[in-house]
Design brief:
The chain is α+β, with helices and mostly antiparallel strands. The protein contains nine helices and 25 strands. It starts with a strand and ends in an 8-residue tail after the last helix.
């Protein structure tokens, strides 16, 4: 008997999905575990798998269709089976569900200042069918498929047409000379550019110092090279207004942050700390252990460890507001805001208080890498207790971050800055770091937040204790 395959909710964060590509066509045979389509959710591009033997009799949702959870997407059954009545029923169901679909549900996102962070802050576990996934247990569906984590290109096109959550097309201006030398630094600092953009610039003899990047953090991407080549450099060109499509991820981020700022009474506490000791410790660890390149321990790794220790000492900050009670968490799960193509996401270090600095360093690097490839599982970016958002790598000295619900606080970390400081009556070279704690005033009072920052500063300025646990 033919069955309707529905858009399945893969995690508590997913409310709708977009059919990116059908890998199987009408009339193709399918078998359990075989991938039949790719679906873009609020956080990742996932693969739709069949888990029953049959034939794809009808494709109800063409590529590009954005449908709410539970909407029919296909019909799977036996070859030659009459499904005309089922098709009509499914089409009516699609129309009804579109009209009644809700706004994007909450996801685990945080913010870098007013947008993103090393982000953190927004679906399902790979290879898990709707009948066995945690989200699927809450649904009574007739689906014959499940979605698993995409191991492909994460929905990012080869032409790098997605920027800051919007699908865009390159804009071109008048012509450019193709004989400028390629350089990799600007003002003594490395130029951020994708490998594709670097190769293209080399082929065309374009000087990267003259190209303005439009990717995340000012990164130069392929579109910028093509625009520079065709547009006579970065000269002013009158542009037409464009209507940009908002992705599911951007919708979710907008919904989450708007809800957080409108419902949580935020207040902010900022402190300046002596970052010399923590930077010296980082250098010693890397030197003594022979760590180099991507394997190096970063200041942010030590910050995460300091936060885990501080949260144990001030558990009120490691809490969540519930309408009838405050939940003080028994675990310390710290999220790190990771900036990715199209938005941001917050993977969590689980039980951070039990892990060493090296373990935290390795784990967050691995999570951040998979986050950028959109290969995280829902359990890796949901249900945390505290978040750290670091914009120091962008030269931001200080900022305030929006709390990542249902957490009660988020720590915003600025850049480590070298500046003269006063010590023992003498002006000497120093290293300063500004951090700002955003607090939910329903859960955290000013004195409690101040106690957290005071202990955190003490650990950062006397960091050897971070190596003992």
């Amino acid at each position: 008997m033919a069955k309707i395959a529905e858009m399945t909710q893969l995690s508590p964060t997913m409310s709708e999905g977009k059919i990116v590509r059908w890998l199987k066509q009408k009339g193709d045979a399918v078998s359990p575990g075989e991938i039949i389509a790719e679906v873009e959710t609020d956080k990742a591009v996932m693969e739709m798998e069949a888990f029953e033997t049959g034939v794809l009799l009808e494709v109800l949702a063409p590529e590009g269709s954005l449908l709410p959870v539970g909407a029919p997407v296909a019909i799977i059954g036996k070859s030659g089976e009459d499904v005309s009545a089922l098709v009509e029923t499914a089409k009516k169901s699609i129309s009804t569900k579109k009209e009644g679909s809700a706004a994007p549900s909450q996801t685990s996102t945080s913010t870098q200042s007013t947008s993103s962070s090393t982000a953190p802050t927004s679906s399902a576990q790979s290879g898990t069918s709707a009948s066995t996934s945690s989200a699927g247990k809450n649904l009574e569906t007739k689906t014959s498929v499940s979605l698993s984590q995409n191991t492909g290109n994460s929905g990012i096109t080869a032409n790098e047409e997605r920027t800051y959550g919007f699908k865009t097309s390159p804009s071109f201006g008048p012509g450019e000379s193709e004989h400028s030398p390629v350089r990799s630094t600007r003002g003594g600092r490395p130029i951020k550019a994708s490998p594709l953009a670097k190769n293209l610039a080399l082929q065309k003899g374009i000087n990267l110092t003259e190209v303005i990047g439009s990717g995340p953090g000012g990164r130069i991407i392929k579109r910028d090279i093509l625009s520079y080549q065709s547009g006579g450099g970065n000269t002013f060109v009158k542009r037409q207004d464009r209507k940009l499509e908002i992705t599911g991820m951007r919708k979710t981020i907008a919904s989450r942050l708007a809800h957080s700022t409108s419902t949580i009474p935020h207040f902010y506490l900022t402190t300046e700390l002596d970052a010399g000791p923590i930077d010296d410790l980082r250098n010693s660890i890397n030197r003594d252990l022979g760590l180099s390149g991507q394997g190096k321990v970063s200041v942010n790794d030590l910050i995460l460890k300091a936060c885990s220790y501080t949260l144990l000492q001030v558990p009120e900050v490691n809490s969540s507001w519930r309408e009838d009670h405050i939940l003080e968490h028994g675990r310390v799960d710290i999220g790190v805001a990771v900036s990715i193509e199209g938005g941001l996401i917050t993977p969590y270090i689980r039980n951070a208080e039990e892990k060493s600095v090296l373990e935290i360093s390795r784990e967050i690097k691995e999570l951040a890498s998979r986050a950028r490839d959109r290969k995280l599982k829902p359990g890796e970016y949901t249900d945390g207790t505290f978040t750290v958002s670091n914009l120091g790598m962008f030269g931001v000295s200080s900022f305030t971050a929006v709390i990542n619900e249902p957490e009660a606080a988020i720590l915003a970390v600025g850049a480590l800055v070298e500046k003269p400081v006063l010590k023992a009556g003498n002006i000497v070279p120093g290293k300063i770091l500004n951090v700002t704690l955003s607090c939910d005033h329903r859960v955290i009072d000013g004195a409690t937040g101040s106690r957290f920052l005071s202990l955190f500063r003490e650990l950062m300025e006397h960091p050897l204790r971070l190596l003992t646990g």
